[in-house]
Structures are given as C-alpha cells and as structure tokens.
C-alpha cells in the first residue's frame, strides 16, 4: 500500500488531475466560510485501490479537456503551470488516505498494543485482607489461579514467574494464609513460602492427660467451648474408635502436636486424634480386638512411670500381678475417679469405684488417661523381670525402685517415707 501511495500520489502526478481537483477547491472553501465543517478524522476516506485511482485520473483528464475546449474553442487545449493550491491539496489528500489506513490499523491493533504494554503485575503493596486456602498437593498453577480468582495477584503469569525466581516456592505448605488484595506477585509469594504465616490452630497435647483435660486445652487454643468437645465425644459412630473401646474415647486422644485449620470442628479434631492413636496401635501390630486392653495398660504405665526407662518395668509389674490374681494397688486409678493428682487420701482409697485397684483385682474398666507412644510400646512389649512391686523414692528426681518380694518393697517404702519427712510439703 505504501509503495502504491508514493508512486501514484507523491510521484509523477497528472496535471489534468490537478485541474479536476481544483474544481472543488473553491466549493470546499466556500462551505468552510459558511460554517460547514470537515469530517472528523475517524471518518477519513478509505485508501484508494489502483483501479479506483485510474478511474479518477481518467475522469479528471476528460473533464479538463472539456473545460479547455469550451474556454479556447480548441479541442485538446494546452497545459498550464500547476498552482500552489493544487499541489498542496494533493499532499493533504494523500495524508488523508494514509491517515485513514493508519486509523483502521490502529483500531484493530489497539487491544494488542495495550495488552503488550500493560503490566501483568500489580505494583503493590495491596490493601484489605483475604484468606487464601492452599490445598494439599496443589501445584503452582492451581495456587496461581486461586490467587487471581481472589484478586490477590493480577495474573497467573506474574505469580509463576515470581515462583520460578524463588527456590523456596517448592516448599509452600498447605493451609490458610491471610494476604492483601492486589499485591505484587513476589510479595504474595513471600507470604506463602513462610510457614509461620499459615493460619492454623496449633495445640500440643502432652502424655497422660484425662479426656476432659484434653478438651480444656483444645478449647483454650481453638476458642471452641469445652461443651462442644464433650458432645462430640459422644458421637461414637463418627469417631472411628475400635469396637473394643465400646464407645469410650478415653485413651484414644493421642498426645502429640496438632495443627488444625481455624474452621475445624470439635468433632473433626477429636477424629484426627483418634485416628492417630489407632494408627500407632496398628504400627505396633496390635489387633483391633486387643487395642482396648493395650491402651488401658499403657494408661496405667503413663500414670505411674516417672522416667522413660521405667515404663517397660511398670508394664511388667502390671502383667505379673494380673497373672498372680493380685490387686494392682495403683494410686493413679484412684486419682482418676476423683480427678485429682498426687498422693490419694484415705477416703479416696476407701472408694467403692471399680477404678479403685486397691480394693478390686484385675484391670480397671477402661483407660485412665491418654497414653503416648512410649507407654503404648511398653504395654505392647513389657520388660522381662520378676517384679511385683515398685515405689518412687524421690519425687523430685522420679527415682523408682522395683522389688520382687514384699519385704524388699517395704524397705523401699521406708526410704520413700524418710524422703517425705526430709521434704515437708512435697508428699
């Protein structure tokens, strides 16, 4: 098109065409003087094709000959020197033709040009707050789409480019994060790669707590009322307890560090803890029918053993006394009835509760706490030994002495009593 315009308009022009165009010059000037307006740029004539230009030139030649014949009486006439106005008008017309083509092209290319020039990233820092969930196993493209959908970042491309530039992006952990709307992609990524920014309920459950103590600790961190945990514990069909538990959740709230999303219900939290407990029992090779017994023995071990080294020995004492039809005589089972810690009173020891192993033989009706993995391992694999008795002789250090005979045990009891005399208020 450019070559065509340059040769047909700015090259060797036809003087007859000049004369033809000059005919309309005065008319256009008259219209301008009388308030007529030229058309707006967006209505400029479209570029002329070769055929249209030839036809215009031919019409101009014919018109020019007729005018000269009428004026001189001679057909064919003669050439005159082109006026400045005619040359100027040709240039203006050429620019109009070119301008029309450019306008059409710009209108078509404008979205492409603007898209190319426009940034695919927000400048940041952003405003407001929005919680974004990163699902387990989510890939970078899925995370990017989530961020775009929630107007955190402007484009997936910007986020993926930022992730490719940051090696830590491979370690984004699932969870809920608080970000701003319209953040710079690299800033949004910086939030996601830091695990400390996850919105989670993190709670640590130590070994040996009673179920109601576990509920209180969970409630303190999550803000869910204790009553909701107690109610959830009664939904035995949903908790995932082994059949041998007979619907009793005590013993199956596995002590560990848990991270719960803020929206996790009381029931779902308890279900996760029960699932962790049964998983550990499975790993120890405990059949579902035996889980309740193992967990019960483990809870006794958790309540009585003062050190890790003593757990397997305490488990052996329990098994030896059960085998000999002896009462277990454990303070921890009495304390469970009264929900008290420490040395039980005589009134407590006189209780008729089936959990009072000072009065009744055999295991208590169920677990008396929620044992940890160490106690479960000890209950599943007690140490070998003839011990029937044990007593902690130093409450500060937890030193415990085991005996196979009653006289030996009595000597250790006397040692403990002396320690209590020397340490007033600790026994």
Nutshell version of this structure?
With 427 residues, this protein is mainly alpha-helical. 51% of the residues lie in helices and 8% in strands.
SSE blueprint and pairings:
Layout: H1 2-8, H2 15-33, H3 50-72, H4 84-117, E1 127-134, H5 140-149, H6 156-164, E2 175-181, H7 185-192, E3 201-204, H8 211-222, H9 226-232, H10 236-239, E4 257-260, H11 266-283, H12 288-304, H13 311-323, H14 331-338, H15 346-349, H16 373-380, E5 389-394, E6 399-403, H17 406-422
Antiparallel strand pairs: 1-2, 3-4, 5-6
Q: What does it look like?
A:
The chain has helices at 2-8, 15-33, 50-72, 84-117, 140-149, 156-164, 185-192, 211-222, 226-232, 236-239, 266-283, 288-304, 311-323, 331-338, 346-349, 373-380, 406-422, and strands at 127-134, 175-181, 201-204, 257-260, 389-394, 399-403. By secondary structure, the chain is mainly α. It has four domains: 2-117, no CATH class; 127-197, Dna Ligase, domain 1 (2-Layer Sandwich), CATH 3.30.1490; 201-283, no CATH class; 297-422, no CATH class. Strand 5 (389-394) and strand 6 (399-403) form a beta hairpin. The longest helix is centred in the N-terminal third of the chain and has 34 residues, at 84-117. The protein is elongated. The chain starts with a helix and ends in a 5-residue tail after the last helix.
